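Help needed: design a sequence for this.
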């Protein structure tokens, strides 16, 4: 791989201050892209970026709550006023500790669907004029739990499965204009996201999990494909820990082990 696959390209990365998101921002900037990083926490966005990249040629932070449709449209339109947008990435995702079906509240269901799925629609809609102009690419981070249920809970899995539906339909509608959408669905990735589980995975499981840089590398691969190639979906699992159909973490069960638990 050269260090300049995205030279001259502009990317928007929503969730750019998180574990996987900051790895995507860094890798894209290292490969020559100008990256507009979106997140609710400006400090997290700034902390995610090596200081030498915090300038308008490399990484530009934007304080945005992507569940606010109007704000998303304003932000994307503002970026598009000044530059083309070649790649849109959303790494935004949340879950709640009380995710078991019997514990899940309607409020949590709504919040998870809004953050993990509705926001992706807002981003796609807001970026579409720009992506059509560049025959650009949308990349969304889903979850392997959309393919094989695990302990991540009904709301999270419904949202991630909905994301597959959204990106499939978006590609169906837009491919003749050269616009492609890809969902990358990882298994366990060692990020701060894991500490928010009711039962966080053990140190052993975390050590065997995917790195944020692995997922960022997959994003770079998709973003660098020739315009004639479309990869709609990619599932990536940590070899020693998970396999197709077997995405539960063996030493840290997050589903009840007895009817009373
Ligand atoms: N870690 C895993 O094992 C794993 C496995 C499979 C899939 N995933 C998926 O991978 C993605 C990234 O996860 P991660 O592990 O890197 O988690 P993370 O560190 O918690 O990152 C999530 C990011 O989403 C941002 N975010 C959340 N709500 C937002 C909102 N309303 N507006 C703007 N930004 C928002 C957060 O930023 P602020 O809170 O600062 O706004 C944060 O930067 C998620 O979609 C997750 O579902 C993770």
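Sure. Designed sequence:
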């Amino acid at each position: 791989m050269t260090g300049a696959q995205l030279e001259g390209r502009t990317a928007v990365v929503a969730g750019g201050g998180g574990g996987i998101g900051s790895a995507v921002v860094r890798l894209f900037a290292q490969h020559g892209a100008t990256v507009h990083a979106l997140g609710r926490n400006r400090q997290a966005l700034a902390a995610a970026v090596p200081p030498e990249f915090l300038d308008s040629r490399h990484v530009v932070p934007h304080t945005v709550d992507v569940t606010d449709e109007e704000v998303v449209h304003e932000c994307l339109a503002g970026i598009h006023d000044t530059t083309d947008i070649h790649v849109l990435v959303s790494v935004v995702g949340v879950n709640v500790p009380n995710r078991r079906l019997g514990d899940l509240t309607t409020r949590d269901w709504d919040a998870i669907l809004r953050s993990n799925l509705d926001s992706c629609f807002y981003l796609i809609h807001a970026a579409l004029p720009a992506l059509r102009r560049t025959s650009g690419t949308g990349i969304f981070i889903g979850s392997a739990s959309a393919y094989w249920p695990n302990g991540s809970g009904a709301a999270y899995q419904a949202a991630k499965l909905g994301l597959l539906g959204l990106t499939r339909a978006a590609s169906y509608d837009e491919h003749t204009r050269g616009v492609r959408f890809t969902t990358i669905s990882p298994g366990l990735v060692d990020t701060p996201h894991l500490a928010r589980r009711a039962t966080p995975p053990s140190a052993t499981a975390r050590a065997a999990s995917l790195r944020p840089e692995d997922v960022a590398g997959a994003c770079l691969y998709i973003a660098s494909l020739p315009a004639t190639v479309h990869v709609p979906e990619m599932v990536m699992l940590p070899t020693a820990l998970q396999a197709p159909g077997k995405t539960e973490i063996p030493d840290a069960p997050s589903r009840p082990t007895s009817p009373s638990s």
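Residues 15, 17-21, 39-41, 44, 64-67, 91-94, 115, 141, 143, 186, 188-189, 191-194 surround NAP (CB under 6 Å).
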